[in-house]
Structures are given as C-alpha cells and as structure tokens.
C-alpha cells in the first residue's frame, strides 16, 4: 500500500487530506464540498419547492390556463381581422391595382401558396384548373366572386381559408394573377371541373 | 517468492481476464466506425435529400434509428463493457467470476447488434425512440444484460478488497437501472415474431417511454462513464481523487434525482401538468449533482495540468469532463419550461445530445483506448502526434456541430412562434423555416465528418501500436492477501456500506425506483389523468395497417403528433393535443423533433390526391421540401391477412373492437381502400392502387385529429 503512495503525485496543501484508501493504486483525498457548489445546489432546491407549490397547490396559472388567456386575446385580434377581410370593396381593390403591379406581385404569392395544388400557370392538379371556363365555387371570373373563395376557403374540397394566413394585399395580388390567367395555356392542364361560367 | 513465504503472508496468486477486455475494445472500434459513418450519412441526407436514394432501406426514417442504436448500444455499449471488465477486476483484485458468461455476454451482445443492423433498415421497429428493436431482440438484450450483471456481481463478491470503490458504485447503478428501464419499457404483446404492440397507450406510453429514454441517457451514457472516469483519470494522472465526501454526495443525489427528470421531454404536452413541473424542477436540482462528478474529475487533475497539455490520454479525459459539465448545464437550462418551449422539437436538442455523446462519451472512449491499448499490449502508443491530430479534428468537428445546431434550433424555434400584429403567423409555410436552416445542415455534416476522420486516425494509430507490440506476452500474475473481513468499529456508516455490496445494490435500486413510481404509476392505475372523450374511436383496420406503415417508415423521426397549448401552435396546427386524442395509440407517436410539420391534426387538411403526390415526390407539392421520396408505397401491397390478428391483439390490450370488426378486418379494410382509390382515380390515378400501401397510409393520415375536431363542429352546429 505504501509503495503506491510513494509514487503518487501529491501537492503540499493536500497532504493532510489523504485518506487511507487504496484501490489498485488509486487514493482519495477528502476535500470539503466546495461552498459555491453547495450554495448553488441549495438555491436550486429553494427555487424548486415554492415553484411547484405556486402552480400545483396555490393554483397559479399553468400552461393550459395561460393558453386559454392568450387565446382570448388572440381571438379579439382575429375577429377584428376577419371583419376587415370579410368585407370586399371592389373600389379598394381597383385603387390597390392602380398603385401596384398586381399580376407581378400575385405571381410570387401564387408560387408560394397556391402552386402546390393549382400547378404552374394555374393548370390545376390537386385543385382545379384556373385557366379554363369551368369553375366550382365562383359563378363568374370577377373579384367579387373569387375573393370570398380565397378568403374563406372551401373546406370540403381542401381549399384553405387564406384569410387566416395571408394579408388582404396578398390576397388581392393572388386574385389579380388568377384573373389574368383567363384562357392562357398552362404547361399541364387538368380536365374541366364544375360549371361553365361563360354561357354563350 | 517461495511457497513457504506465500503461506506465511496468506497471499493469493491470481490473474485478470484481459482477453475479454480486448474483445470488447475491438468491438468498440469496429462499431464506432459504423455508428459514426451512419451519423455522417444521415447528416448529409438532411442537407441534400437525394442521398436518401429512393430506396426503402436507405431513407432517413430508417437509418436514423440505426445510427442512434449503433452509437448508444454498439459503440458506447462495448466501450462500457471493456471499461467495466478491466477496472472491476483490478478494483476487486479478482479475476472475472465466469469465463463462459463473459463470452456469452460478448457474443450475445454482438449478435444483438447484428440483428439490429438487419431489422431496422428492413423496417422492423417498435416505433419507440431508442427502444426501436423488436421484441425477440428485446428478450435477448434482457438475457445478456442479466448475464453481464451476474458476472459483475460475482466478481465483486469474490473480491480481495474490503471496500468497493466509487467507480463500482456507478457500475452497480448502471446495471440495475438499465435492467429495470429496459424491461418495463419493452413490455408488449406480440402479433407475430417480428411485431408487437406495447401494453401502454398514449399518455401512459409517453411517460414510460421518456422515463426510459431520459434515463437511458442517465444510466447508459452517464453513470458508467462516471465510473470509468473515477478509475482511469486517477490512474492516468497518478493523482488522488479530489474528494471522497463529494463522491458520496453526488453519487446518491445523482441516482436519486436523475430518474425524476424524464418528463422534461414532455413539457407543454398532454401529460398531467404536475408531472411536467416535477420533471422540470428535478432537472434544475440535478445540475449540481452532475457537476459534482465534473469537479471530482477535473480537480483530480490539480497540479498536473502541464501533463494534460502533453499526454493525449489526459487531454481526452479533461476535454470529456469539460463537455460533460457543459452538457449537464445545458440540460437543466433546456428543462425550464419557457426555454424548452423554444428549443423543443428543434435542432438545439440534437446539438445538446451530441455535446454529450461526442463530447463526453467519444472523448472519454478515445482517452480510454489510448490508455488501455498500449498497456494491455505492453508497448508504447505508436504516435502522440496522430493522437493530437484526432483530438483537434474531433474537437473542431464537435464545435461546428454544436454551434450549427444552436443557430439552426434557435432560428427555427423563433420562426415557428412569430405572430404579427394582425394575429397571423409570420412564416405560415413550414417549409420556409426548413429552407432557412439547410445551410446549417451542411455545417453540421462537415463537423460530423471531422469527428469521423479523427476516429479513423485513431484506428490507424491503435492498429500500428498493436502491430509493433511484442508477440506472445504472458498473462501477468498478481499477488494479494485474501480479503480482510474484520469489523471496523470506527468507520463511518457509508464506509461500512462500501463493504456490503449486496446491501449497496439494494439501496441503489430503491433510490432509482422512487422517482419513476411516483410519476408513472398514477397514470397507469387511474383513468383520472386521461379525460375520456366519447368522440374518439379506435382506428379502422385499414388505418391500423396505415399506422404500422407510418411506424415502419420511421415517420415519427421527423414528424411530431403533438400540438402544444400556445396561440402560435394553434394557428399552425389546430387546437392543442389532449390526453384523450391518443388513447388508442400503441405505441404513441408524439415524436421529439419537427424536421417536418406536426401531423396531429393533419386529417382532412389536404385531399387524398395531395397526399398521393406528396408521398411519391414531396417537391411536387412543397417546393424546397427535404423529405425523401417514397415510391415503393405505390408498389408494395398492404398486408390484409394479418389485420384480424392485429385487431385481436389490440382488443386483448383493451381497445373496444367488436367481433365483427375483428373477423371482417380484411374485408372492411378493402372497402375503405376502395373508396380512397376511387377518389384518387377521379384525379387520374390508376385504380390498381387500392391494395397498395399508399392507400392505407393515406387512410391513417386522413384520420389524424379528425375525431376530436368533430366535437367543435357539433357545438357550432347547435348554436
């Protein structure tokens, strides 16, 4: 035992702390617990107990309760927005169109949001063809008819309510682009769906 | 020494079973290459989706579980066994108890790894993270583990040393706890030889799984390495351990507290909130017990820091312990609810895990290999320079890994939660948040490559070392007096306990059982925690078939099915998930990472055609998607003939299927498949898809979240 201790690298300030332990030449000192270590540990425990008690004994707002409150706030904002978006003023749309290149802006909005279902150039794929004269949810290729379809969506056909996602300006732009597609020839065109809206 | 002298001092002659240690060291190196190679592969797959190769067995969803299993159980596992067998014999001054059990352990474990490497890419999985292996392999793991435990305990009991050293305490905790975790989490009812359904469902399964998952990290990746640290650092540095007192306190607090922390993986979920809070506060209280190990490791190196600069062994050990300290600070930080909300489901967690596995485990293993190989082959290390090269390669690689994952995780977490003043998501398209972080995936993959290259350098260095070693060295013979079992009237209670390994094992077992019992048993025995919702019905037989495909393809690796209760999650995915939503989910599929969006309420969100296109090539419907193609889903036939048996097993587990549903499972599935196929054919798809896997998968996806949405519509209708 003493043999292995002789070779041991010991510092001056710890010689008195060597214990009479020897495991395969491993020795142990008995330094006291570092005070900062004990201090932080105590703080972590002192924090934890009242933290638990606040939420689960004193009835503080937990995650679900906070969610309900946050949703109340959000639903006020959303109701205001829905009201704003729900009203379609064709004059407002025309003013916006005269100040912006609607078709160009709309092409970008279309690419990011509509293309995955309506395909390139509005040819239709998962969703219907937007270039032909057959429409499912609009009776005419007019802003008044198309806007509500974009804003509210058509749940049963899988068309999302874009009013929940896009701003009014983005919807205006997308609409301008879609209207511009009339009679164009997309790379791949889906067969007609819905009613013929251009009665001769 | 003459025989007379031997008798006089009552010395016994013995040697150590080091050939077993050498076998495990070889396996460590071999599986280390495999595990790291897989890690680098899947890292590049995330950066560049085409590397999924359009083949079932090379897609990310199947390879990631293979990577984690290979890294944890094959690479780290073999290293643990080598380290434990080497140090335990020496700390006990006794040869390994059973030669045969040792070989059984070695070959059994390698066979388990090979079985895992075959079954996981073929899609045979339980669908539970870090516990993916199918039930026959689970049984084999339990048997081999028991053999390991018996051999360890047998060696400890015949020791020639009165007390057991702190390293052995940590080995005891490892052996006992891993056995308990593995067995409890794996209980399931087989459908056939390759498949089974767990006895737990939904919230219960989530609690059991994360109690297991978290403590696999604690008792497979942490405690055995603390034991290895306590043996190898004092030996390599020739320094005494800093504080015996600290080792007692941090050992007991660590094993007691660790087990409580599991639910921090389930914050903001549908498990009872008191369980979540408990998981969080115990994680915070765990910070200092973890750092107790770091202090004892680093301060043991007091006075020899000059050696740490020169000696590769000590350099790896010191770095390993430093990363351990970093990771065990980051862990409690990520357990704080608000921090967790930002980091959960993002790459921050992935980075955190690798700070542990690469920083702590890989570095410690490298140090141990550089210490053990020259010693066991009675030679010098071939090249210190190459060892230094590995050190820098691994360290730089790891830092690139961690930093890229911090950036990716925090960026994506912030993008997910951003809401503008009109109450809309700023980034409503999930794909925007993916495309933004793809550059970080390249950085991570490059970092991982550095770690792998370092490993290759080490393999070469060790190979040269062994090649240059003298041949046919004889086994060393040691002398030690028989154990002295005299009473120690003046010893402290703990010192006395160190002489009683069986009692020590029993007390450790009790310490680790408390936390799990308090958190899990209430949800197993009481229905109070899962609010019943009569709208939620069991899956149809076709949906069960589809769900099994979802599990087989490892969809849960990238898609969560759990919506957290916050406004931004509501806006993106729908109303928060509730406990009742997953009462029929065996196994639960809540997931832990959102590489793609949450799917808890994806049912009805897109039409069937969208899913059809998306599975064949995700980029057809989502530009920039990094998801693999799944063309084989259109070619493979759905297995209808096993559905009756599957439903029978489900019924035995408590799912209320009627006799009709069970007996006509196949017919019912075909009927439902026909409806979907008709819908698809209306959009131009060939009717022959009706018996293909894709239709079953679509049926399952279209069902997700639909039942509880019903309720909302009803209440609206009434108004």
How would you state the average pLDDT of chain A, rounded?
90
Strand segment tally of chain A: 2
What's the end-to-end separation of chain B, in Å? 99 Å
CATH superfamily of the largest domain in chain B: Cytochrome c oxidase-like, subunit I domain
Low-confidence stretches of chain A: none
**What's the oligomerization state?**
heterodimer
CATH superfamily of the largest domain in chain A: Cytochrome c-like domain
For the biggest sheet of chain B, the summary is:
2 strands, antiparallel
- Spatial order of the strands in the main sheet of chain A? 1-2
CATH structural architecture of the largest domain in chain A = Orthogonal Bundle
Q: Give the mean pLDDT of chain B.
A: 94
Q: Would you spell out the secondary-structure blueprint of this structure?
A:
The complex is a heterodimer of chains A (200) and B (719).
Chain A: H1 2-7, H2 35-56, H3 63-86, H4 90-99, H5 102-113, H6 115-118, E1 134-135, H7 143-152, H8 168-180, E2 195-196
Antiparallel strand pairs in A: 1-2
Chain B: H1 3-9, E1 11-14, H2 18-47, H3 60-92, H4 99-119, H5 135-157, H6 166-186, E2 188-192, E3 195-198, H7 202-237, H8 244-258, H9 273-299, H10 305-310, H11 312-335, H12 337-343, H13 347-376, H14 384-417, H15 430-435, H16 438-467, E4 478-481, H17 493-497, H18 501-525, H19 541-552, H20 567-573, H21 608-616, H22 632-635, H23 643-652, H24 659-663, H25 665-682, H26 693-703, H27 706-718
Antiparallel strand pairs in B: 1-4, 2-3
Helix pairs in contact in B: 2-3, 2-4, 2-16, 3-4, 3-7, 3-13, 4-5, 5-6, 6-7, 6-8, 6-18, 7-11, 7-13, 7-18, 8-9, 8-18, 9-11, 11-13, 13-14, 13-16, 14-16, 19-23, 19-26, 21-26, 25-26
Describe the structure using short key phrases:
heterodimer, A: 200 residues, mainly alpha, Cytochrome Bc1 Complex, Chain D, domain 2, 2 domains, two-stranded antiparallel sheet, 50% helix, B: 719 residues, Cytochrome C Oxidase, Chain A, two-stranded antiparallel ribbon, 4 strands, globular, disordered C terminus
